[in-house]
Amino acid sequence: MNLLALPAFADNYIWMLHDGARAVVVDPGDAAPVEAALDRLQLSLAGILVTHHHGDHVGGVDALRPRLQGLVHGPAKERIPEPFTPHAEGDVVDILGLRFKVLDVPGHTAGHVAYAQMDEPTAPLLFCGDTLFSGGCGRLFEGTPAQMHASLAKFAALPVDTRVCCTHEYTLSNLRFAAAVEPGNADIAAYTQRCQATREAGRPTLPSSIALELTINPFLRCTQPAVVQMARNKGAVSDDAVAVLAALREWKNQF
Ligand SMILES: [Zn+2]
Ligand SMILES: [Zn+2]
What does pTM read for this prediction? Predict the structure, then answer.
């Protein structure tokens, strides 16, 4: 199974998984990069996975329907282009012979879902939309810090070798913030250097991994003493992980 990050707009990736004949794409905000990849690789489109309703994630869905030989799968609690098969926590989506577990991960939007693929013989995969980014998390447009904390905790509990496929190339700007939260974290400094070289070479910094995010992402490190202390300095009302996440998210919005 091949995994591609198709660049779209200024900083989106449309993830494509294909077996050499059939492909599935995640959050096609624009149809053009998907059509170009299908043509170039001579693939059929076997399915579309959608994580949430924002236009940069669903804008290309209708334009892709004429060549779609399968279903559009999306969040049960959100409005996305009809028709689609609605999914919520506990559902399993079968595409390309793979089983994707659906996770409810509210916070960025109220009905955001993620798709976790755990039974591929190689490394597991997570399509997390705009909930988790490398080094950061999505803005809380429709959800609460408590919801985002619970959603990120579901990701943190996945196998550490899970490949994390986020929708945006925000890594370097997130790492500037992560370094401000934890100036003493050498893993953040080392990862920043690696990502700078990757971007200079014109390559995506993604996918990341759960193991990596647990060492560098402040929003997954809300119980680490250095993170708690910095969050308290920035106005966190207690040492509680949700209060820490709320303060970090607020600070990041102004950063
Ligand atoms: Zn979004
Ligand atoms: Zn987005």
Answer: 0.97
